[in-house]
Amino acid sequence: MEKFDELDAVAGNKGETFTKTQIKPFANETESNSGQGKVSKEHLKQAEYPFSSGIAVIINNIIFDKRLNFGDRRGSDVDASSLLQRFLEFGFDSDLLNDVTKKEMDTKFNEIIEDKKSLKTTDCLIVVLLTHGNEDSVFMTDGDVKIKNVMEYFNATNCPELHLKPKVFIFQACRGSDLGSGVERKVIRNRDPNQADAMASYVEYDEEFGEIISIPNEADFLAVYSTSTGYGSFRNTETGSPFVRHLSDELREMKKGENFYKVLTRVNKKVGMGYKPKHPSSRIVTQMPCFISHLTKDLVFNQKV
Q1: Parallel, antiparallel, or unpaired: how do β-strands 290-293 and 221-225 relate?
Q2: Which of 89, 90, 169, 208 gives a 20 to 30 Å CA spacing to 20?
Q3: Whole-angstrom Cα distance, residue 144 to residue 43?
Q4: Of 124, 163, 174, 246, which is the active-site residue?
Q5: Is 163 assigned a catalytic role?
Q6: Quick check: is 132 catalytic?
Q7: Cα–Cα dist 248/130, whole Å
Q8: Please, which residues bridge with residue 140 across strands?
């Protein structure tokens, strides 16, 4: 019997309703986030985020509460171990958590937020969620959490120690139940192909010394999704997900000094145009990753090993 790739999608209950609880992000005012902070003019003018150390948290959910009516996410361990290895190679203080409840997620994130001494020397935060999901939520083992709420834990208000530092969220999860579609075209080889590298311009603002600036809560966030909104995300029960597999490969092969944007763009191309899901549908089925950037500088990781 032929095996098909699975979807990290919402299975849906038959007649049974499971109460959804939103997790409220840590938002208590403390001495560290009250009053006017200071930002150096030199920091604002930098075109690249400084990077010497980072924190990476991987949440790998495989088995869920039976009331959610989800299948086990077999193959996800492959994704988790490969990304853990990549982050260790980049010098991140990395942590892998398996089968996490909403309370356990809340505890872990608050643990990070409350370790202010460690955060002050941290240059980047990466949170990876390998789980089931829908258009605006991801699932812990006992229920859903809004993606917006997950990211708000670490915004400028709730986690001032990470303001002006990159916060990367990577989601391997469905964002709906639709299947991606597309068209087929024959690829021909041009004799003299033209190649061009796209370059992002960085605009510097001439701020007077001491002038107060506003830092949006959404600033310096990067959300990376395995699929486009409304669509399913595939995972192979033996080899893991194509999105994480290509992301891990590109991280391993990335060049010194290369912007993370380029890595993600190559992943988009390889999954979107190269991956052919094994699915019983008679029509063309595709998967198109995407990323939404609120970063204000180039993000470059340092290879440590």
Answers
A1: antiparallel
A2: 169
A3: 38
A4: 174
A5: no
A6: yes
A7: 14
A8: 143
